[in-house]
Automatic annotation (TrEMBL):
It comes from Peribacillus saganii. Residues 5-233 form the ABC transporter domain. This is ABC transporter ATP-binding protein. The lineage of its organism: Bacteria, Bacillati, Bacillota, Bacilli, Bacillales. Keywords: ATP-binding, Nucleotide-binding, Transport. Belongs to the ABC transporter superfamily. InterPro entries: AAA+_ATPase, ABC_transporter-like_ATP-bd, ABC_transporter_ATP-binding, P-loop_NTPase. PROSITE patterns: ABC_TRANSPORTER_2.
Length: 303
């Protein structure tokens, strides 16, 4: 897969204050990428630079082979953006909003609007006022709006903010769908890590204006999560203090033991041993989350 975005040694200052420091990364065409970092890390600034809305102080960028410094207009024509402020007209219907924006993008096509409304399961609500929609429905219309002109890249700034868990999983479902059906490359900024765990192919971790780590989840897990915490639901009642056949554990409530293992290789022998002595209803690794990795990378132990 070719790179659709290439960023090399970007510096950005605002009022002589360095905000982005030597930022380099690349993004593969057709992939879903998470740009993760706390508030103020510089995520939105990166999106604005990539779209040519602001210029870098130093460094080079290529977006779809174009230079955002010179070709911002062309990049914005070929990219879709969803920001936190949905900028939909509340006193207009979903249909009229999409017609209005498609005319602005010079991409008016009623078939495309119908197709997007169908894709986001909003066709039955097309004539209702956007102001009456739930936050989740508004997000779906914002996504449809950003896709009207069939962009090659979709930039999403905190797409799940303000949504309840159901709304979050529905947005994630639609993003998977859009990525597959429209072959659009996606870059999502977020500070809420666990929501992106099942969505992204690769991650960029940004802290105080620097990329402190990048990669796919499996590589990052192998690098940062050396120990494994395994929560086992079992009838086992070990007699010996804090070890069971050499495996360290803690009691975590009725029928729940948390084992601390040196590696995943120890899981099978441990479970075999327990099954010899008792029943097992479930076992789950509890520290292999994006959040755990993030805290390890940032050097902060949250456990
Ligand atoms: N136009 C501007 N002028 C001056 N400072 C700015 C400007 N835009 C952003 N900043 C500063 O740059 C830093 C990074 O901001 P940015 O919005 O990129 O962070 P972020 O990671 O997107 O944060 P959040 O999660 O809060 O949206 C912040 O300290 C912010 O105050």
């Amino acid at each position: 897969m070719a790179n659709i975005i290439e960023v090399e040694n970007i510096q950005k200052e605002f009022n002589r204050k360095p905000i982005l420091k030597d930022v380099s990364f690349s993004i593969k065409e057709g992939s879903i990428n998470g740009l993760l970092g706390p508030n103020g890390a510089g995520k939105t600034t990166i999106i604005r630079l990539l779209n040519g809305v602001i210029n870098a102080t130093d460094g080079d960028m290529k977006v779809m082979g174009l230079d955002p410094r010179k070709d911002g207009d062309e990049i914005r024509k070929r990219a879709g953006i969803v920001t936190e402020s949905a900028s939909l007209y509340h006193d207009m219907s979903a249909w009229d909003n999409l017609v209005f924006y498609s005319k602005i993008y010079n991409a008016y096509d009623p078939k495309r609007i119908t197709q997007l409304l169908e894709q986001f399961e909003m066709l039955p609500f097309k004539d209702q006022l956007v102001g009456l929609f739930s936050t989740g429905m508004k997000k779906r219309i914002s996504l449809a709006k950003a896709l009207l002109h069939k962009p090659k890249i979709l930039f999403l700034d905190e797409p799940t903010n303000g949504l309840d868990p159901e709304g979050i999983s529905s947005v994630i479902h639609y993003l998977h769908k859009v990525n597959e059906e429209e072959k659009v490359t996606i870059l999502i900024c977020s500070h809420v890590l666990h929501q992106l765990e099942d969505l992204c192919d690769s991650y960029l971790f940004l802290k105080e204006g620097r990329i402190i780590e990048k990669g796919i989840l499996r590589e990052l897990e192998d690098k940062y999560l050396t120990d494994v915490r395994l929560l086992v639901e079992t009838g086992l009642r070990p007699q010996e203090g804090s070890h069971y056949n050499g495996f360290a554990y803690e009691v975590k409530g009725t029928n729940k033991l948390e084992f601390l293992l040196d590696s995943k290789d120890e899981i099978a022998p441990l479970l075999r041993q327990i099954l010899n002595d008792s029943w097992v209803h479930s076992s789950v690794i509890i520290n292999r989350s994006l959040e755990s990795i993030y805290f390890k990378i940032g050097g902060i132990d949250h456990e």
